[in-house]
Amino acid sequence: MAGDVRIEDVQAGRPVEGVYAVVRKQRRHDKNGDAFLVLELSDSTGRIEGRVWKNADWFDRNIQEGDRVRAIGKGTAFKEQVQLDIRRLDKLDADGDDAVTESFIPAGTRDVMDLAGELDFLASEITHDEQRALVEAVWSGPMRDELLRAPATAADHHAHLGGLLEHTVAVTSICLAAADRHPRLDRNLLVTAALLHDIGRARELRTDGVIERDLDGGLVGHVLLGHELLLAAAVRAKIDTTKSTWWPKFVHAVSTHHGPTERCRTREAVVLVSANALDARLAQRDR
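User: That's the sequence. What structure does it adopt?
Assistant: Structure tokens below.
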């Protein structure tokens, strides 16, 4: 609706009215024991934390995570962060239109097609035939569109459309820089693992109005989901994983990419853990 305030434009001391998605909801109590709600709201420009001080019990019963709401309130400053003091909250009817649904999910600052071209170039640098074929079977395979639009996490880092792609390109670039300085690293194996380490996120996370973990995805986790996708891709690429001597080292690097480094038994795994953590932490600082 014309005149609605986007989240990136919310300012302390200024009135706010807009349509947003409820990403998170938490019921708390103040020092007097009175209930209030803490909400995290999102649109295509970002996320913001808001508080509902009055009628918290009613709103807690009637507003759920994933709902679309019209919020009216005022921007406030708290610990150098802009928040939203919510005075009124109206639940809106659900709309199944994909374009409308995506309008509530933050988008990245990088163009997805530019990032996709960068990823394809990185894949073309792999000189090991089987490893390059595996990467192409995943990123140029039947899940390409799903992978290109997937977020990297639900709320931690790169929690926006295209976030998985952005994170993957960054991690791979960091790994390549390490390979240039440390010739004992297996460059092909390291790049292959970096390009494929997080593909399970495309199955773990849903983007139906808000970014959230799928029920099965939350139980199984993106590492195991990713391994299942890799096995299927290996079949498409005609790779016999029982005979490929590089496969165990590759699986080890991918499966340990959240660390700690003490669990890593290869140089490539150590680099991937470190690159993944570095990019995630820097992205968190950019929010």
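Residues 7-99 form a domain with the OB fold (Dihydrolipoamide Acetyltransferase, E2P) fold (CATH 2.40.50.140).
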